Amino acid sequence: MKDKILPPDYDLLSVEELTEKANKIIASLERENDLSNSVESYQELLKLNNIIEKKFHKNYKSIGEETNNQETVFESGAILIYLAEKSGKFYDKKNKSTIDQWLMAQMGIVGPFVGQYHYFYRFNKGLSEIGEKRYYEITKSIYDVLNERLTNNKFLAGENYSIADIATWPWIARHEWHDIGLNNFENLKRWYVEISKREAVIRGFQFMNKNQLPPQP
């Protein structure tokens, strides 16, 4: 790697500044054609990730520490359930079964398949025509299913915003990458736009770039 992205004083940088540096390395890896340079960039990224993790755990208690025992919580869906139960928000006990079903749909279908579409169509376009076509069709079918679900429901699990929406929304937030056309899905678009205006959603979206807002259809 000709230009060292990692500064010599990285230990003095904040988690946010370090994360920005990591994103630059990731961007360079996506453009890299020289395998030896790619390996070096990847090694720098691993070092940087280790520093970010140490700084994060130094400044913020882990979920395991919050439980006051030896147990730790991992996996985004499980973490959302834990936080929702602890806070008493976005996880109505009377509607728990429906919320769980749509949360599991995100974890088992939306995330994995849309993620594969990103891999083939966004980051490695031209690598596999079969991969692009397969995951385009699956992602479009996911749009169809979500749109149908939201025909008679304000949110995925019913009338109230829940952790199922929190888990699913970020994947649709990349609708500009998909070339499917969110405007073609009236109910999904309505759901997406409404959630995109929530203050907490905007704050989360701006974690990496304070000037960025959720892309509107």
Write the layout of secondary structure elements.
Layout: H1 15-31, H2 35-59, H3 63-66, H4 76-87, H5 96-123, H6 129-149, H7 163-172, H8 175-178, H9 186-196, H10 199-205
Please, could you describe this protein's structure?
- By secondary structure, this protein is mainly alpha-helical.
- The protein folds into 2 domains: 10-59; 76-205, Glutathione S-transferase Yfyf (Class Pi), Chain A, domain 2 (Up-down Bundle).
- The chain is 64% helix and 0% strand.
- The chain is built from 10 helices and no strands.
- The model is unreliable at 1-8 (pLDDT under 50).
CATH topology group of the largest domain:
Glutathione S-transferase Yfyf (Class Pi), Chain A, domain 2
What is the number of beta strands? 0
Low-confidence stretches: 1-8
Q: What is the architecture of the largest domain at the second tier of CATH? A: Up-down Bundle
Strand content: under 5%
CATH class wording of the largest domain: Mainly Alpha
Number of domains: 2
Helix % is: 55-70%
Mean pLDDT: 81
Report the span from N to C terminus.
38 Å
Shape: globular
What's this entry about, in short?
By secondary structure, the chain is an all-alpha fold. It is built from ten helices and no strands. Helix 1 packs antiparallel against helix 2, helix 5 runs antiparallel to helix 6 and helix 6 packs across helix 9.
